[in-house]
User: What shape does this take?
Amino acid sequence: MIRGRRFPNDQAEVVFADPLIEQLESFPEDEQVDILAEIVRLCEDPSGKHPLHAPLAGWNTVDVLATEYRVVYKATEHDGVGLIEVLCIGRRRGDEVYDMATSISNSGRLSPDEITQFWEALGLLDVVVASLNLDEWDYKPRPAPAGLQRAAVAAGLLDAETASLLGKDEIEAAMEAGWGPSGPDPAKALSAAVARAKGSANFSDRKLLEVRASNRCGAIMPRAMTACIRADGHHGPHRAT
Assistant: This one.
């Protein structure tokens, strides 16, 4: 990316070469968060600091951890959708990071079978997305099976519109916990579903339903080849699942 150029809406699909996940696992949790936060910021400023030359022409670097390390990445745009491919991380001293990047690049480890989506990587690293100033709940999951939706509605736990906005595990939580002394308790059912959806995030039951009912981003991600399921106007990385 040319310096000063930005991705549309400051959004991008972010993917990692598989070796990067193993590299990140060697860092303490607080340093993992700092590294990932810098990668997220590339969505807003993809031009980086140090464009590379052959044999790594087209790749760029960003300094992390008080400039002690560098992350090697490539930022491109495909049909109006940003893509950030993160190759590796290494110390700045000598040519360590560049030798590593050349080796990984030459091995072809950015094939579809050998990359990890950003959101999947967060789960593998047990990083809480709130620490990166991202919302992990602003996506709309795959709808629960129609039979499960109808069962929750027939039991008096959820109305049909609400059931259509929840995923399978969320409706199952509602059906397990949504009962009171007198039978079905819709308020408890919805609270249980929302608790399953939001994890540690702090928002109301109504907010979840409003976001789920809103328009989706819908950007077709170049690597995942599927539409982003986050809310329209979201910040930072697109999300496939």
